[in-house]
Design goal:
Blueprint (H helix, E strand, L loop, with lengths): L1 H13 L8 E6 L10 E6 L2 E7 L5 E4 L7 E7 L3 E8 L7 E6 L14 E9 L10 E4 L3 E4 L5 E7 L3 E7 L6 E6 L8 E6 L6
Parallel strand pairs: 1-7, 8-14
Antiparallel strand pairs: 1-4, 2-3, 2-5, 5-6, 8-11, 9-10, 9-12, 12-13
């Protein structure tokens, strides 16, 4: 009777194979320390097939995966994501993926913007960037466009950015942007400096 019970236990255990996990995503911060509670998504053909949070050792496991390559997305949109594309499974071996994720620039739920970032792109009539254009604003402030025609400014909530962009041999262009309190947003504007008509 004891032999029969042992045989039944052995045979039932042999019918269920140990679980095979296709992927293990190991998430670390830039210092190499395991990153816990970070969402990791497995994406197949543009659709998220599964999601897992990293455990205390920074590990997220994906056991049930297709045979074709998949993508992995680590992180959240408000903090930035790390994308690893086209990862092929290595069945019967578990495929390990190491991800470095930096959460230092995340915006917290209770953090509210107090300024607007403004990017002015200075171009000519053909859309080519104009470097060396001067943006005069404020009492005696000036910014110069770089080789890509870019001028970066930051405006505090409730304040205006008013001025004129000038470049020798071209007509000046007035600029007026307002950073509305409670509706702070980033602005990217293309400014065309035209040659005067003769």
């Amino acid at each position: 009777m004891m032999r029969l019970v042992w045989l039944l236990a052995f045979s039932s255990g042999a019918m269920v194979a140990s679980p095979y996990c296709a992927y293990e995503v190991k998430v670390r911060n830039p210092s190499g320390i395991p990153f816990a509670n970070v969402p990791v998504g497995m994406v197949e053909h543009g659709a998220q097939r599964a999601t897992a949070l990293t455990d205390s050792s920074g590990l997220a496991k994906f056991c049930d995966a297709p045979l074709q390559p998949v993508d992995f997305v680590t992180g959240t949109l408000d903090c930035g994501v790390v994308l690893v594309k086209g990862v092929k499974p290595t069945w019967p071996e578990t495929r390990e993926i190491l991800v470095t994720y930096d959460k230092a620039h995340c915006g917290g739920e209770l953090t509210f913007p107090n300024s607007c970032r403004i990017l002015l792109r200075v171009h000519d009539e053909q859309g080519r960037p104009l470097g060396g254009a001067a943006f005069d604003f404020g009492p005696s402030e000036r910014s110069i466009s770089d080789a890509f025609g870019r001028i970066f400014r930051s405006v505090k909530s409730g304040e205006n950015l008013d001025g004129v962009i000038k470049l020798e041999g071209r007509m000046p262009a007035p600029i007026s942007e307002r950073c509305i309190r409670g509706n702070e947003r980033d602005v990217e504007q293309t400014v065309v400096l035209r040659k005067p008509q003769r």
